[in-house]
Amino acid sequence: MPRTLDGQITMEKTPSYFVTLEAPRRIHSMSPDTKLIVVVRNPVTRAISDYAQTLSKTPGLPSFRALAFRHGLGPVDTAWSAVRIGLYAQHLDNWLRYFPLSHFLFVSGERLVSDPAGEVGRVQDFLGLKRVVTDKHFYFNATKGFPCLKKAQGSSRPRCLGKSKGRPHPRVPEAVVQRLRDFYQPFNRKFYQMIGQDFGWD
């Protein structure tokens, strides 16, 4: 990490940190005062989105259903990373061995789309920053289905998520989606209890 001067904040973003077993210990040994921002979304939607991204890179992939369940519609296969990543309570347990809950901000991925300024406002508050990013900085990109940042002064174009974001999801049978909802429900409830925040995924 680069050196941070007084009055500066250094930020780094890596989606895999939250689910990497050794990450909390390494980050704590580097800086035990680190503030941690975790963007979470409905784990069922997240798993389907993960599959869509992998499918775009590997067209011959088995069906979502074949990967999500062992032996057809047998037990949910938690060895598949698309499923395992959504077990937020388990990952948080590992982090809480090194960092207190007060060092975390859990951001709703759904609200980042529906109310980006509100969620970014929470991030600014958590980091002790003045609220400078507001509604006026966003517009909704109908093609992507996501909000984007308006063109900044001196910039040639607006900032939007890359090509790998905003792609349509494959159609997954409702029975498969419901099985995953049922599977995640106790994990989601434990997660809500741990952080004192209910995302309403159930």
Report on this model:
The chain is mainly alpha-helical and 202 residues long. The chain has one domain: Rossmann fold, CATH 3.40.50. It contains eight helices and four strands; from the N terminus they run H-E-H-H-H-H-E-H-H-E-E-H. The strands form two sheets. The chain has a two-stranded parallel ribbon. Strands 3-4 form a two-stranded antiparallel ribbon. The longest helix is centred in the C-terminal third of the chain and has 22 residues, at 174-195. It is globular. The model has no long low-confidence stretch (mean pLDDT 90).
Brief synopsis:
The protein is mostly helical and about 200 residues long.
CATH structural fold name:
Rossmann fold
Please tally the helical runs, counting DSSP H or I stretches of 4 or more residues: 8
Spatial arrangement of strands, main beta sheet:
1-2
Domain unit count: 1
What is the helix fraction of residues, given as a range? Answer: 25-40%
Strand content: 5-15%
Average predicted local confidence, pLDDT: 90
CATH architecture: 3-Layer(aba) Sandwich
- How far the N terminus sits from the C terminus, by CA atoms, comes to 38 Å
Could you tell me the radius of gyration in angstroms? 19 Å
Classification by helices and strands: mainly alpha
User: Which homologous superfamily in CATH is the superfamily?
Assistant: P-loop containing nucleotide triphosphate hydrolases
**Biggest pleated-sheet summary:** 2 strands, parallel
